[in-house]
Write a structure and sequence with these properties.
This is ATP-binding cassette domain-containing protein. The protein is an alpha/beta fold. The protein has 6 helices and 10 strands. The chain has one domain: P-loop containing nucleotide triphosphate hydrolases (Rossmann fold, 3-Layer(aba) Sandwich), CATH 3.40.50. α3 packs parallel to α5 and α5 runs parallel beside α6. The longest helix has 17 residues. The chain is globular and about 45 Å long. The two termini are about 25 Å apart. The structure holds adenosine-5'-diphosphate and magnesium ion. Adenosine-5'-diphosphate binds next to α1.
Amino acid sequence: MISLKSVAHRYDQQQDIRFEDWQIDAGSQWLLLGASGSGKSTLLHILTGILKPTQGSVSIKGTSIYDLSSKELDQFRGRNIGIVFQRPHLIKSLSISENLVIAQSFAKLPTDLKRVNEVLDALGISHKKNAYPDQLSQGQLQRVSIARAVINKPALLIADEPTSSLDDNNAAVVLDLLMQQSGANQATLLVATHDKRVKDAFKHTYELS
Ligand code: ADP
Ligand code: MG
């Protein structure tokens, strides 16, 4: 479903970061492991179409993503890839449910309030749908981030250190929700972490050195 071939990236004035070839089956769940600075975020940015690698190719669902125009790539990302960042990136002036609606419109999909409610329900935050981001706790905000990432039923769900700013309880809940949501939507799940609390939950691992 996803394949990474001969990929390497070089930031200005730095050494190449090389990534081992990687074949990811549809629906599989992976942990991406590596020390801080080993290139986890770089690789996830490459896989989400945000960062074009200096070498190699990335194909998702048969599409070589860096051969798309930037407009096509934006739309491809909006429809196929859900991203959960280390810290929630929500729009502060919009309510929780409006933040999800706007994710539908960014992907050029029609507004679907039924889907918004369904996702908020599944993540246990429907009582916060009319609240604003600064009225929620860190753990609740991370649930909203997951809700926004899965709203368009992406084939690929990517999370970059989603538990590192959370306490043990919230970290376990967030991880559980990611796995559950990827299962429910048959989405491939990639979670980057250096958080030792997370390691046992996943069958597949890809390790950066
Ligand atoms: P990780 O997510 O595993 O901590 P990163 O992918 O963020 O690692 O970083 C990998 C390496 O690339 C590090 O040495 C980091 O300093 C460098 N790096 C990351 N982003 C940039 C950037 N925008 N410009 C220059 N160097 C960067
Ligand atoms: Mg990182």
